[in-house]
Amino acid sequence: MSQQEAALVTGGSAGIGRAICEALLAQGRTVVNLDYNKPDWGHDKLVSFQADLTQQQETREIARQITSSHDVTALVNNAGATRPGTIDTATMADLDYVVDLHFKASIILIQAALPALRASRQGRIVNMSSRAGLGKAERVVYSATKAGLIGLTRTLALELGGDGITVNAVAPGPIATELFRQSNPDGAPQTKRIIDSIVVGRLGTPGDVARAALFFLSPDNGFVTGQVLYVCGGTTLGVAPV
Questions:
Q1: How many structural domains does the chain have?
Q2: Among 36, 97, 142, 230, which one carries the catalytic annotation?
Q3: pLDDT score of 68
Q4: Would the pLDDT of 198 be above 60?
Q5: pLDDT tens per residue across span 17-69
Q6: What is the mean pLDDT of residues 76-88?
Q7: Do the domain assignments include residue 180?
Q8: How many other C-beta atoms are found inside a 10 Å radius of the C-beta of residue 37?
Q9: Residue 163 placed within a domain
Q10: Residue 97 among the catalytic residues
């Protein structure tokens, strides 16, 4: 590898993605943030690119730009969208959107990063799934694609393990991001119901998820692959398989 080594995080301008970027930067790593929105924060070792990851050609072009200037040895496919709806209200447009964002963009970026991931012999891929992948009402297309990311994670772990690349998934539960609070304001009845359903008695934070991602992204953790870590405050107890 002859270019600058970096970790690539999608959706790093805010929320969980920002927390992951900041955690990696705190380790002294160079971080490339790829998001639809420009971040309102910065760091000497943060490089940001903008793109609509639901557009395949645009995603391929930005992936080419990033990998032409950086050796991506760690990749976090974090960018996501919920598109709420039941089976009665979900549309094919909703489905196409989340498939493009959660699946197609992830695969395009993984393919673009593969040469550097392989060359490093300790490449790391983290896919952001969700506790909703186990089933969540009014999240038909979202939960389906988040569950699908687990299948992708396990298959890639089998395919890429011989190259020293680990592939794991983080599956957050209720996390107090800006987006979450827009729909669930502090003190609102629905927010209280959510908190009451969490075993540890509080909402998760973006930092909780970032710390889980850091475990998988560490060059020292090369013996853990194909796994899903639920960062959910215990909400999967009695639901998730052992």
A1: 1
A2: 142
A3: 97
A4: yes
A5: 999 999 999 999 999 999 999 999 999 999 999 999 999 999 999 999 999 99
A6: 95
A7: no
A8: 11
A9: yes
A10: no
Q: For the whole model, what pTM was predicted?
A: 0.96
What DSSP string describes the chain? --SEEEEEEET-SSHHHHHHHHHHHHTT--EEEEESS--S---TTEEEEE--TTSHHHHHHHHHHHHHHEEEEEEEE-------B-TTT--HHHHHHHIIIIIIHHHHHHHHHHHHHHHHSS-EEEEE--GGGG--TTBHHHHHHHHHHHHHHHHHHHHHGGGT-EEEEEEE-SB--HHHHHHS-TT-HHHHHHHHTSTTSS-B-HHHHHHHHHHHH-TT-TT--S-EEEESTTTTTTTS--
In a domain, residue 18? The reply is yes
